[in-house]
Structures are given as structure tokens and as C-alpha cells.
Amino acid sequence: MEFRENEAIYSQVANFVTEHIMLGKWLPEQKIPSVRELASDLQVNPHTVVRAYEILQSREVISNKRGIGFFIHSDAIEKIRSFSKERFMGQDLPELLKNMYLLGITIEEIGAQFESYKKTMNQSKQI
């Protein structure tokens, strides 16, 4: 995983976990990698993963079953969608709209790109 400089690593690790859940790579009620496993896989400090897992626990995406490990909540996808949509609408979308305006990009151009992206994503799910 390549980390972006403008965002805390623990936040990027939390996003990595939520993305795996949203893409169906990790399923609801499934055990996820331990702190040490994920830290090793991503080549980060275990404390960074602990911080990411704490955030996800506070959002009720995952829970810790003492002595067993971390598990994905049954309604994790809905919770991820909810807080991600709120963040997108409040932070990311205004920036996107500003850039569209400055660059003269139309809604139609974005729509065409989005439809192309959806086709690509649907094809990759079938493989």
C-alpha cells in the first residue's frame, strides 16, 4: 500500500479496511486480520493499526471479541456508506465541484466517466 502524505496513516489504514469490506473482500461477521498481521502486511507500526481499529470500533464497523480477534459487524456496509457519504458530501464533493467549475468540466462529462467506471467495476467483479 502506498500512503499519501496529506492524510494520517491510521486514517488510510481505516479506509483500507472499509474498502475491503465494501468490495466484499471481507464479509460481515467475518474475522479480520489481527493488528500484527495487518501491520506486517501494510508495513506499518502495529500502533497505527490499533488506532485505525479503534476508529472503526467507535463507528461500529468492527468489534473486538476478547481473546478471539476483530470481527466485522453485520451492518458494517450500511454504517460505512452512511459516514462515508456524509464525509464525501461535506468535504470531497465541494472540492470536486470547485475543480469542475474551474476546469470547465460538465456534469455530462462526469456522468460518462462514471458510467465507464461502473462498467469496469462490474466486469472486475465477474472475474
UniProtKB/TrEMBL annotation:
InterPro entries: Tscrpt_reg_HTH_GntR (IPR000524), WH-like_DNA-bd_sf (IPR036388), WH_DNA-bd_sf (IPR036390). Keywords: DNA-binding, Transcription, Transcription regulation. Gene3D superfamilies: 1.10.287.100, Winged helix-like DNA-binding domain superfamily/Winged helix DNA-binding domain (1.10.10.10). SMART domains: HTH_GNTR (SM00345). One of its GO terms (molecular function) is DNA binding. It comes from the Bacteria. Residues 7-75 form the HTH gntR-type domain. The keyword Metal-binding does not apply. SUPFAM superfamilies: Winged helix' DNA-binding domain (SSF46785). This is GntR family transcriptional regulator.
